[in-house]
Amino acid sequence: MVSHVWGLLAHPSAEFEQIKSENESVSHLYTHHVLLLAAIPVVCAFIGTTQLGWLSGEGHAIRLDMFTALYTAVAFYLLMLAGVAAMGKVIHWMARRYESRPSLHRCMVFAGYVATPMFLSGVVALYPVVWLCLFVGIIGLCYSGYLLNLGIPHFLNIDSKEGFIFSSSTFAIGILLLELLLGVTVLLWGYGSWLF
Predict the structure, then answer these.
(1) Which residues cross the membrane (predicted)?
(2) Distance (Å, whole) CA 23 – CA 39
(3) At residue 21, what are phi and psi to the nearest 5 degrees?
(4) Among 62, 149, 172, 174, which is most buried by a count of CB atoms within 10 Å?
């Protein structure tokens, strides 16, 4: 797992070829990659919001109690896992019109590896300042977009000219899904304590 993470950051084209040659199953991807990496932003946000609290521009810290932070962290973790699966299905749905017609299995694996920079950018939640989290999150999102564009011809065998339109559309859907996940998480943080 760690070798793929470093490879996706250091030499992504070669790493996609390596991942493709392994013909990894979706269950192996989740147990050896997605489950572990999705825990990074969850654990960091739990620590940051319970120990430091969300730091506002005025210098006030809004700390979450352990119970609220715990159920929010669990919900956010499950939403991220579902988000990766949903993006795999979106990629498969969008790829059905191309001649190569990659399988759902390959699209799910691809989505799991493309999400890697987003998971890694979650480390910044240890110090939960809104502008910093947004800045690092945007960097992670941009690199995920780069991996999406780069990996389509390598991993899904879709021509790079057609792949640009494919990756742009998929990226836009991914951003909408990310906004939905973040919105649900904010609702859980803001109003979740009234539910329990």
Answers:
(1) 34-54, 66-91, 103-123, 129-152, 164-191
(2) 24
(3) -70, -25
(4) 174
Q: Is the confidence at residue 18, as pLDDT, over 80?
A: yes
pTM of the model: 0.86
Using CB atoms within 10 Å of the CB of residue 66, give its burial: 0 to 12 exposed, 13 to 18 middle, 19+ buried.
exposed
Residue 1 three-state SS: coil
Predicted confidence band of residue 41 (pLDDT cuts 50, 70, 90): very high
pLDDT band at 95 (very low <50, low <70, confident <90, very high): confident
CB 139 within 8 A of CB 121: yes
Structure tokens at 3: 């070798």
Helix (H) or strand (E) holding 61: strand 61-62
pLDDT band with cut points at 50, 70 and 90 for residue 146: very high
128 touches 100 (CB < 8 A): no
* Residue for token pair 């430091």: 52
Are 120 and 39 in contact, with CB atoms under 8 Å apart?
A: no
How far, in Å, CA of 148 to CA of 163, rounded? 9
Tokens found for residue 72:
């929010």
CA distance 168 to 161: 12
Rg of the chain over CA atoms, in angstroms?
Answer: 17
Tokens of 62: 């809004």
| Separation of alpha carbons 179 and 79, rounded Å | 12
Cα 25 from Cα 186, distance rounded (Å): 33
* DSSP code for 64: P
